[in-house]
Amino acid sequence: MDKPHKQLHAWTLSTQLVSEIYRITQHFPNIERFGLSQQLRRAAVSIPSNIAEGAARNGNNEFRHFVAIARGSLSELDTQLDIARLLNYCTESQREQLDEILQRIDKMLYKLHQSLKA
Prior knowledge:
The chain is an all-alpha fold. The chain has helices at residues 9-25, 36-56, 60-86, 92-115.
């Protein structure tokens, strides 16, 4: 039996985003191993993790709360990617590709959040 979160497109796409973030941060300078790269990874992992935790909770209000947290992590990740781009740790092309994914996830999470209103 599949877990409820695994049927959500937002969860699936956000796990793919985590994979992309890990791939890109592998190439960050060694001095960032415990800095920005770790923050990016934590923020990215937080998105599908909060979707999964919320889906496992009792009731729409709790689920909605965790979707809001996932959206906050998405915004945090967006800011951190802007910083990584300013520092030339990722290319403009990589940033644009990630931005498209971030926008798709944000729309999905917004719609999910709205659908969970009482």
